[in-house]
Amino acid sequence: MKFSTLSIIATALAQCASAKKIFIDNDGLAPMQLLFPLAAGHEVVGLSMSFGSASVVDTMGMASSILDTYNLSSCVPLHIGAQQPLLRTNETFQAWEKLFGNLVWQGAWAPGYVDAYTWDNVSSYDPTEGAIALINAVKANKDTDPITIYTGGLLTTVAQALSIYPQMVDEVEGLYMMGGYVDTQLAAATGDAITIDINTDINLIQDPEAAQMVLTAGWKELYIGANVTNYLVPSQELYDKIIARAGSLEIIRDTPYMTWVSTLLGTGNYSENNDQQTLPFWDEVVSAFMAWPEMLLETTDIKVAVDTSYYSPFYGSLRAWQPDWAPTEGYKVANATLADKIDDARFYDILLDYYFTNWTQYCTTGVEGLTNVVL
User: Fold this and answer.
1) What pLDDT does residue 222 have?
2) What pairs with residue 339 in β-bridges?
3) Domain holding 219: CATH number?
4) Is residue 12 part of a domain?
5) Are 351 and 237 in contact (CB under 8 A)?
6) CA dihedral sign of residues 309, 310, 314, 318
7) How far apart are CA 134 and CA 147, in angstroms?
8) Which among 283, 331, 294, 325 has a CA at the least distance from the CA of 28?
């Protein structure tokens, strides 16, 4: 079914009775990761940008740019999240690679990494640190509208919050996580560099201790995006639909509001774009089924943990068990729901629609005031 902007807004309004309050932490923001929850009638009470796939100044700069583009700074608070992992350092990260194999993607720890932004590019942010902002949000809403946490990068900020306020785990609705791949060893061993990259769980590998602490904390609900997030990718068909809707690629490139659409399209020719321009819609997929739970078509209930043994080739990897066969002593595990399948067609429809939605009045009018972009 094709969802027009107006029909999606109507759906969002109908769902307002079950609206969530959401706190997002990530190490690099994609516009739709933020816009999907807002479109579904939810409230994003905090946005925390942390170290990981990019430096903190780059994650903050990217988030600030997205908030400015869509004029959302006045109603979506931006915070600085964790600026380093709990235990792991660049030195131990590089040493582990020498022992067990190099990673294709090393994020902000890649040799020669250069910041793309400066702090002058960050227009404004709330000075409250991400972990404290999360705790404050949990405390403020625990008796009325418990917070849902979404983490799309390292889990360090959430681990920091848990270490300060462990009862938080009982006072939130649940946690959604991008990452947590399972059974991808053969794909990584037989694929090219981009295949290896896609099947490498960098969100866990850069801070395994935080990942284990967070995933086994005992959440009421723990949803893991896992492998399904690797399957929804850009394509020439999607590019063509976007370009046709805008009128031309030149119109998109010449319209400041469409900056992030232009970034997605790159050259406009999928076969000519580089690996980084053709990556899966990782964060957007989890955000979509968090915002619209009915989009999640198939799931599996499992037990999970993260390997935290430094002298292990699986250090920082998700370990999974059938519930009846999971460890019961000596190794802390937790219940989790693994995403297996989502409504792909609807995902691409809403992606297209919300790139062509005018968000500039959202902070004033809410979802009711959303209109189509006029190019």
Assistant:
1) 98
2) 299
3) 3.90.245.10
4) no
5) no
6) positive
7) 9
8) 283
The tokens 């969530």 sit on which residue?
20
Low-confidence spans in the chain with pLDDT less than 50: 1-4, 10, 13-15, 17
- pTM beyond cutoff 0.85: yes
DSSP 223: E
Q: Which amino acid is at 279?
A: L
CA distance 60 to 70: 16
Task: Tell me the C-alpha distance between 203 and 107, whole Å.
Answer: 10
Range of the domain at 134: 21-233+279-370
Burial class (CB in 10 A: 0-12, 13-18, 19+), 249: middle
Residue 10 falls inside a structural domain = no
Q: Which ranges of the chain does DSSP label H, i.e. alpha helix?
A: 5-14, 31-39, 56-69, 90-100, 130-141, 156-164, 168-171, 185-190, 193-198, 202-205, 208-215, 236-246, 249-254, 259-265, 282-291, 344-355, 362-365
Which helix (H) or strand (E) is 129 found in, with range? Answer: none
pLDDT at 213: 98
CA-only gyration radius of the chain, Å: 20
Query: Minimal CA–CA distance to 346: which of 2, 83, 106?
Result: 2
Q: Looking at residue 9, what is its pLDDT?
A: 53
In a domain, 38, yes or no: yes
Distance CA 295, CA 23 (A): 20
Q: Is 74 helix (H, G, I), strand (E, B) or coil?
A: coil
Is residue 360 in some structural domain?
yes
Question: How do strand 357-358 and strand 174-177 relate by DSSP bridges?
Answer: unpaired
Contact assessment for residue 258 and residue 358, using Cβ atoms and an 8 Å cutoff: no
Distance CA 307, CA 299 (A): 23
> Whose structure tokens read 């900020």?
157
112: Cβ contacts below 8 Å, ≥ 6 apart: none
pLDDT at residue number 324: 94
The angle at the Cα of 165, spanning 339 to 57, to the nearest 5 degrees, equals: 70
- Partners of residue 223 on adjacent β-strands: 176, 337
What is the number of domains present in the chain?
A: 1
pLDDT tens digits, one per residue of 107-165 = 999 999 999 999 999 998 999 999 999 999 999 999 999 999 999 999 999 999 999 99
